[in-house]
Amino acid sequence: MVKIATTWLGCCSGCHISLLDLHEDLLDILGQVELVHCPVLMDVKEIPNDIDVALIEGGIRNEENLHTAKEMRKKAKIVVAFGTCAVYGGIPGMGNLYSNEEILEKAYKTTLTTKNDEGIIPNEEVPPLTSRVVPLSQVIDVDYILPGCPPKPELIASVLTALLEGKEPEISNKNMCEV
Ligand code: SF4
């Protein structure tokens, strides 16, 4: 049975929610595959070996994202950049307009709702930020892109179905940005 894995990196999880929005159609797909890693449906910490198709949501924002992307690439035959953040950097890419110091200062000290009298910026058990946000294809080889913020459920289904049938998924420019 085809082994499918999904994971998320620097993202909002909305692409996975779009996957769940397939509703009953998702059950049809899951009936044909073995799901081995998926943060919204199962609690598996380690990335398993011998994955056939991996959907990776989000770009690279920190060192943990980078490690996870490389692990997934090592263990999966086909890697799909899942959603605009994975394909282009997306919303988290706006962080590139600021230095990491400015981002940490804002996030941990100066937002209106933050109370941090000691001015502590956590640096233990929090993965360090990478110098810039980059899309997946800048750190690993990507076989297919599945753009959209989030990708439409029917597009996710058609790409997965094509890959399960050993066909080339069709992603037209129409799916890049709906007007
Ligand atoms: Fe969220 Fe959109 Fe990025 Fe998906 S592409 S993780 S929905 S911001």
UniProtKB/TrEMBL annotation:
The UniProt record lists the keyword RNA-binding: no
Full-length numbering of the shown residues: 1 to 179 of 303
Protein name: NADH ubiquinone oxidoreductase 20 kDa subunit
UniProt keyword Zinc, yes or no: no
Gene Ontology MF terms in the entry: iron-sulfur cluster binding; oxidoreductase activity
Keywords: Oxidoreductase, Ubiquinone
NADH:ubiquinone oxidoreductase-like 20kDa subunit domain ranges (all copies): 12-163
Species name: Methanococcus voltae (strain ATCC BAA-1334 / A3)
